[in-house]
Structures are given as structure tokens and as C-alpha cells.
Amino acid sequence: MKPKRARARPAPWAATAVSLACASALAPWLVASAWAQAAPATPTAASVPPAPTAATAAASTAVPMALSFEQAAALQRDGSPALAGRDDAVRAGEAHARAVRHVGGPIVSLSANYLRYQKTLSVDLAGARRDAQGRIDDYLNALPGQFPPSLQPVVGDVTSNISGALPGLLGPLPDRLTYTARDSVFRPSLTAVWPIYTGGADKAIRQGAEAQVALAQAARSGVATVSQLELARAYFGQQAARQLLVTSEAQLTALQAHAHNAERMQAQGVLARSRVLEVDVARDAAQRTVDRARLQLRNAQDDLARLLDVPSAVAPTTPLFVRAHPLPPVEQYLDTGTTLRAEVRAAEAARLGAGAARDLAAAALKPHAFVYGTYNFNRRHAIAVDPDWMVGIGVQFTLISNIDRREMLNAAESRQRSADRAKEAAERTARQEITRAWNQTELARQSFLSLESSLVAARENLRVQQISFREGVGTATDVISAQTALSQAEAQRVAAAFEYDLALAALLAASSRDDEFAQHMAQAEHRLTPPTGSTP
Q: In this structure, are residues 308 and 271 in contact, taking their beta carbons and an 8 Å threshold?
């Protein structure tokens, strides 16, 4: 029978390029593998994936570690230095907040001083001597008049004698008396100071510390979210790579069988040599696709093993999954995402910190009032001028400072306005990313479900073309195209499931609902069970 002439048809990889466009943004190696299946050709130097590293080769020879996604997530949390560092930052912030929670309260201190001192006292006696002599003279002169006339001459003689003797009595007194004292004193004392008005500085310090704790917690949450997204990409990426390897091997097996049938038909004289060569070319291209898929799987295994920091390859046990039911309305995710998202929480913490800094700058322009007291425990050996105890109240107001306090307040107010706008921008970005992730998740879900009918049609078309080829009414090109179309549909189905899982993880992360990922996995109606064979 004369072979039929091949009909002109569009390139079989044209539809694949469109359907895998979105998946290419998620996993370039996934699309490369699917593209290679759809359009077998001699690979160029740029298209050949990198060879596995020595760590990958060692991991591939070791016994793979079977891990579910939850187990892998727990292993990542326990061994992540980034998360551990953020945990330390949170603990540091909390300790600082506890340290300043009593700012504005009393400060009591106990001190002890040992003093060695010298004190010199000098007293002027010349003036005092003249004053004393003058007063005595005045008194003696007035004394005779206080007696009866008969006694006044006698009293007058006595006072005259006394007045004459006074210079001799007061003359020995020095004009100046000097006294020097040296001593050692041990002075233990208790001092207390209690600010009663700080202009709001104490409250601002506490609010600033609380803002730092919130900022550290938000940063820790952000790192945890990014870590989970990286894990989802690597974990389900390895599952997708294994699925694509199985698809490539199935295509190679089918083309090998087709080549065997074509050679038998050539031997029987019912098939031209050119058609057999056409099948051989397709088979060889499928072999190269399998080799490339094996390398891609090894790269994916290396990626996941490095991410989890394990010495051997990981065997994921949680398959790619897709839920048949649509997601809840996007408004539910927006409600939580615009308030609990790590970036929004960080912006809110920065806004509170900027407000506290503004209040602290304003407090520098206000007076400060405080009460204080001190008590001396060694009063018997105290210096003469030292009080036994003392209490008081004080007010301090800075008139001139070497720092422009008004400009500092202006700077703090500008930073507060900047923080307010940063929070608005974070909320807007959260809404955009949540909406985008929700749409991408729904699109991937719909694409996956629609591929079910495409797979049924592709399998039936391949069966019909194989029968037609055996009956001599079909061509080898028809069988190759049908086999390629089936491989394309299977690769697109894997890509859609992979895209769904990553988009769902991104949606839950953007809306701060990461803990619901396990629930979606458990409730998924469709699972692409990882094959047990085809180990590279």
C-alpha cells in the first residue's frame, strides 16, 4: 500500500507555549521541560540545564528522606538561621520593653563615701573687742547715777578704777583668731529622685519600645512567610519535575513501540523508509527530553535538599493538589491581609515608633519637675554643713541648648507623616497582591479542571491514530502529533497544578492566613500522586 502524503498542520508546540506562559514565571525549568516535550529538537548550549553539583550527586546516591509538606515545614523552621535570628530580635525587643516599663518612676540609690578633709576657720576679734570695751564704758559711766547721792562718789571711784583696768584686761586678746581642723569621715547615704512631670517623655519611651517589639515581630512573620513560599516552590517543584519526567518517559516508551511497529511495517513493504526515519527522529528527540527531565529533577532535588539543609535527597510524600471548589470571595482575604499582613504590621509599628519619637522631641521643649530626698546614715561623723536628711522639689527648664529642639521636633513630625504614608502604601500593595494572587489561583484551578476533558480527548485521539497507522490509513506524523498532544496536555496539567499550589501559597501568605494551607491540602479533590519509579 502506498503511504499517504503527510498533511500540512501547525507546529504541535504552538498551543503549549500559550498554556505554559503563566507557569514559566513560577518555574522556568518546568516550562523548559514541557517545551522540550512539545517541540523535540537538538538542544543548544543555552537550553541545556546545568549539570548537577557534587552535593547533588552525593544526595542522589543516599537514601531519600521521605517528608510530607508539614514535616518539611517543621524541619525548615527548626533549622532556619534567618528565623532564629528574627526570634532573637523579638526577644531583644521584648526585653528592652520590659526594661523601660517603669520609666518615670522613682530612682533610689545607695552611696557610700570616705572623705579626708581639712577646714580652716578665721574670726576677726579686733572689732568685737572695741565694741565690748565701748559698751562696758557706757555702762560704767551710767552706773553712779543709779545709786543714792550719798553713794555716788564711792560708785564713781569704783567705776573709774574698772574703766582704767579694762584696756589691760582686753589687750591680750588677738585681733584675729584662726582655727584649722583635719578629719576623716565615712558618709553612707540614701538618695531618691522621682520625676513627677517629664512633658510626656516617659510615655514616649515606653511606646517606642513597644513599637520596636511590634516591628521585630512583623519582620519575623515576614521571614516565616517568605520561607514557606520558598518551601512550597522547592517542594512542589520537585513533585512537578518528577511528574514531567514520568510524562517524558511515557512518551519515549510510546515512540519506541511506534518505531518498532514502523520497522516491522517497512520490512513488510507497507511503509516507506522516510516514514521510519521520521519516527526515529521523534524517538531520539524524546530520549533527549527524558535526559533533560532527569537533570531537571536532580536540580530540583538539590534545591530542596539545600533549602532544608539535609545531607540526602528528599522524597516528598505530599502530592500536587487542586481543589475543585472555588475559593471564598476575595473580600475575605482582603479583610485579613490589609491588617495582619507582615508588611502592613511593620508599617503600623514604624508609624507608632515615629509618633513616639515625635512626642519625645516635643517633651524636650517642656519643663521637667521632680521631687528628691537624701538621708545620712552616719550623722555623728558628718561634716558640720551636711544635713542629716533633706527633701525637696525641683523644676528644670532648658533655656538654651546646643541642639535646635524646634528643628528636632519638625524632623520628627516629618518622619511621622512619612510613616503614615508608608502604611497607606503597604495597605494598597497588600490589596493589589491579594487580588492578583486570588485571580491567579482561580485561573490555575479552572485551567486544571478544563484539562481533564483535553486529556480524555488526547488519549482517544492517540488510540485512533495508532489504529489508523496499523491499518495503513494514517501516517507516522499523525501518530507522533497525537502522542505529542497527549504529552502536552499532561505537562500542562502538571504545570496548572504546580501553579495552583504556588499561587494559593502566595495568596494565603499575602492575606496572613498561612495556617490554612494544610487545610486546603487536606480538602483537595484532585491530587497528582507522585510516581514511585523513574528515579534519575
A: no
pLDDT digits (tens, 9 = 90+) for 55-76: 443 444 467 889 999 999 999 9
Radius of gyration (Cα) for the chain, nearest Å? 48
| Nearest-angstrom CA–CA distance, 145 and 267 | 174
Nearest to 62 by CA among 302, 291, 233, 317: 302
State yes or no: pLDDT of 53 exceeds 50. Answer: no
What is the distance between the alpha carbons of residues 286 and 252, in angstroms, rounded to a whole number? 5
Cβ–Cβ < 8 Å for 114, 217:
no
Q: How many CB atoms lie within 10 A of CB 490?
A: 25
207, 104 Cβ separation under 8 angstroms: no
Three-point CA angle 7, 10, 12, nearest 5°: 105
Set of cell numbers at residue 357 = 519619637
Task: Decide if 508 contacts 342 (C-beta within 8 A).
Answer: no
pLDDT in tens, 450-483: 998 888 998 898 888 888 877 777 777 788 888 8
Burial class for 266, CB neighbours closer than 10 Å (0-12, 13-18, 19+): middle
In whole angstroms, give the CA distance from residue 159 to residue 139: 9
Cβ-contact 247, 498 below 8 angstroms = no
Say if residues 277 and 6 touch (Cβ distance below 8 Å): no
For residues 301 and 238, is the Cβ–Cβ distance under 8 A? Answer: yes
User: What is the C-alpha to C-alpha distance for residues 364 and 230, in angstroms, rounded to an integer?
Assistant: 47
- Contacts of 420 by beta carbon, 8 Å cutoff, 6+ apart: 351
